[in-house]
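Practice problem: predict the structure.
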Amino acid sequence: MGAYFCDDGKWGRGTYTLTMGKHIENDIYILGIESSCDDTSAAVIKNGILLSNVTASQAVHEAYGGVVPELASRAHQQNIVPVVDQALKQAGIEREQLSAIAFTRGPGLMGSLLVGVSFAKGLSASLGIPMIDVNHLQGHVLAHFIHTADDDYESPSFPFLCLLVSGGNSQIVLVKSYKDMQIIGQTIDDAAGEAIDKCSKVMGLGYPGGPIIDKLARQGNPEAFTFNKPVIPGYDYSFSGLKTSFLYSLQKWIEEDPDFIAHHKEDLAASLEKTVVDVLMKKLRLAAKDMKIRQVAVAGGVSANTGLRNAFHEYAKRYGWKVYIPKFSYTTDNAAMIAITGYFKYKDKDFCGIDAPAYSRVSV
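Answer:
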């Protein structure tokens, strides 16, 4: 258990007391802060129910075909105060009502993380309330436990399998509880989202590639082209071979027809998407079968992909799975997932000290 700021001005451990003359309330208000990449986000959760979730995105990176770390950290510095202010206003509370501040400690871009971590430390010290560090990847998995006052979404019960897929991660996670997660399979090279983005860039379609490929794939034939599918033992993934196969095939076709991409971009997108989804789902099916688990979830940015979502529904019918697919607003980086993770940790009094550093790399 970490340290926190007590009303006597010292750092301590155990049951905390709020400062500034406040008394301990029955209601638990958690402010979540997310700044791991290029989205600045803040959210407020009251007793496990989401009150607000505000995100400021950064369009500046589109011109560079990828996130520029220095530009990202500068934009976070500009966005963090207004985003937090709006989250509190939309939640209808004052900052003095907050019970704790949950923040993304990592993994992510170090410069971006430092903005959120530093802000959380300053606000925590000024209000005399605990800090809760959150693993960004665990936050994606626990996005399935975000609820609003009027939703009817059913969260998975433990244990369940979660396919965590994003631009930087492709993992199969065995989730035994909110704080007990085990990676049983992961990519040994490129992540699924990374492969899609790079193939999109090769085709000259722009950044980010995921939404572009998704939109084009809805208009194409997924059986038009065949690309190599890597054979990796166990539950692990590999997408570097697929990326290379796509590149070499495209070069060959362009030699025969310089306008090949323009003539076939929809079919290329559909075939690429199908290949990635097939690879992801085959390993997930193997893990679910071996572990005899039928509760299966998906999380991360790539979980917004239409083809992957359709595959989950198809597998549910074929194998008797009960599947859990997050709302689109919870697929990309957002503070709601940080706040709900913080809420669970708050109930366990799992706090961190003001000296907790950010970290750029860590597993779930």
